Amino acid sequence: MKTALHTVSYAGVWPGQARLDLPQVIERAARLGYQGLMVMAKRPHLSVLDASPQVISRLRGLAEDHGIALACLAGYTNFTADAAHPDIPLAEMQIAYVTELARLGQALGAQILRVFTAYEDPALSLAQVRERCVSALRECARRAGDFGCVIAVQNHHDFACHYQTMHDLLLEIAEPNCRAAFDAWAPALQGDDLAAAARLMAPLTVWTTCADYVYRPRFRYEPALVNYQPQPAVVQAVPMGEGMVDYPAFLGALKASGYDGWVAYEMCSPLQGGGSLENLDRGAARFLEYVRPWL
Predict the structure, then answer these.
(1) How many domains does the chain have?
(2) Can you give the pTM of this predicted structure?
(3) Domain range for residue 16?
(4) Which helix (H) or strand (E) segment is 98 a member of?
(5) Which pLDDT band, with edges at 50, 70 and 90, does 179 fall under?
(6) C-alpha distances in angstroms, 69 versus 53, 56, 61, 115, 164?
C-alpha cells in the first residue's frame, strides 16, 4: 500500500483548524513523509474555477519536485441536491463538474476521482434516490473514462453508506471504471464486522481513507426533572490507534484480499487537541507510524 494525505486536513474547513494553501500542503506532505495527496477539489485548494493551465503546470511541477503524487481528486457531489426543484438541472451540473475534474486529473496525473452518492430527501422515494445515483454515477464513469480516470464512490452520504448496499450499487452501475473509495469508519459506526466488509469490497476498492474516532456521550439538562436527557453521542476524531475503529482487522483483510492501492489519512472534523498546525502535524505523522505494518 502507498500513503496519501487528504488536503482537507489543512484546509481550515472546521472551526479552529489551521488553513494552508495547496502548494503549502504539497511541501508539508513531502516533509512529513507521505507518498501522495488526495486533493480537495474545491476552494481553498483546487477549484475547477481557478485551475488555469498555469496553475496546473505549477502544481504538477511542485509535486514532482517534492516527489509527491497527485493521486486522487476529491470531488463533492450529492445527486439528490434540491430535489424539491426539479426544473434546476443540478444533476447535469454535477456531472459536468465531475467531467471537468477528470480533465484536471488527466492534466495532473491523478487517475482517481472520489465522489459521493446522495443524501436522502423527503421529496424522493428510496427508489428514486437509487435511480438518480445509478444514472448519474454511470454517466460520470463513462465521461471520466474518456480522460483515463476511475470514479471512486465513497461510502459517506446516506445512500449506499452500508457496505452491502454499496456493493449492490457498483454491480448495478456495471461500469469498469466505477469503483469504491471504501472506508472503515462508516461500517465501524454501523456496528459491522470490518474484516467481512473489507473482504467483500476489496475487489471493487481503489482507494481507502482513514481516521479514528471515539464516542463522547451528550446530555441535555431538564430542570423540571432535575435530571439529564440522553442525546446522540458526539463522534470525536482522535489520533490513529486511539479510537474505536478496528484498523488492524480492516486493513489486514483488505491487504489479504488483494488490495495494494492507496491508503489516505484525513482530518476533516475537529481533532482532539485542536486545529493548530502543530496538532495537525502530530496527527499526520502518527498516521504514518500507525500504518507502517501494512505498507
Answers:
(1) 1
(2) 0.97
(3) 2-294
(4) helix 90-108
(5) very high
(6) 18, 14, 11, 19, 31
